[in-house]
């Protein structure tokens, strides 16, 4: 990234020794290499500025006094701006001096009648600027993606931790007293059997059987609850996720009742929309509105993110597949500014009537 380009310093060093360039280009080039490496390897505001100004001076001077070909050394500057000073704004003093260097390297166009030289200089400056800004945007996108990935990872970790705590508490509350009762009942049954009170021992064993049967049912309910959240729970989870992601959420909801299967499908659809919102939308705010009309439940999800570049009809296919089983629908009402996605699903009663 930084060091491969140093190979190009061989050319001014060689030409200064061969006599094609003035000999003073040799020590200037050595100082250029030292300044460049110091900028790469060290960080000190004062020295950074001094070394930067020297690099700008060198590129301008050797281009004007040596050869127009030396304008290629402007790539050293663009490389540093792209990677070493990636936090600088395009209006910073380094960028301004870089623009001045490019203008200075274009001066030979005014004094040279060689068309090939003019084309070369213009091409070099355009390529240098184009590559720098392209790499700058690429780095910015990669940085945003990394931040999103880190944020998503932390959100997933927190959610998993909360879920583990909840599961642990549920199991403790459900099974803790069950095992205590089973221990007492089994000890009592053994004691009764030792005293040949078999009828009473049989009653205790029957109680043990009933306790274990009820415990199994409660465990099944816990496992089922892990698979599917209620709509209220899912909205709360979604609110926590968006808060961790720095997205403001507003929920407007009417009181409504629906079938369990429809609620589960709607819950999973909201979960997927929430994940997409966090990972891809770059939104800062989101609004969810739940309404009921004529036996249909409508969910409108709106955000101020980047939206969809082009709507082909293939978007949100997994949500569509999930809702179609219950005659539900999903539609992109607005692709961007704001992005609006609408979910429609019939209440349980309507679905059951239509399926008979």
Describe the main β-sheet briefly.
Answer: 5 strands, mixed
Task: State the CATH class of the largest domain.
Answer: Alpha Beta
List low-pLDDT spans.
350-356
Give the name of the CATH architecture of the largest domain.
Answer: 2-Layer Sandwich
- Count of DSSP-assigned helices: 12
Question: How would you describe this protein?
Answer:
The chain crosses the membrane at residues 21-39, 51-81, 93-111, 117-135. It catalyses: ATP + protein L-histidine = ADP + protein N-phospho-L-histidine. Its EC number is 2.7.13.3. One of its GO terms (molecular function) is protein dimerization activity. The protein is α+β, with helices and mostly antiparallel strands. It has 3 domains: 4-111, no CATH class; 155-227, Single alpha-helices involved in coiled-coils or other helix-helix interfaces, CATH 1.20.5; 231-355, Heat Shock Protein 90 (2-Layer Sandwich). It has 12 helices and 5 strands. A 5-stranded mixed beta sheet has the order 1-2-3-5-4. Mean pLDDT is 83; it is low at 350-356.
Please render the helix and strand layout as text.
Layout lengths: L9 H9 L6 H17 L3 H21 L8 H11 L8 H13 L1 H5 L3 H80 L3 H30 L3 H14 L3 E6 L6 H22 L3 E9 L2 E8 L13 H8 L4 E6 L4 E8 L1 H8 L1
Parallel strand pairs: 1-2
Antiparallel strand pairs: 2-3, 3-5, 4-5
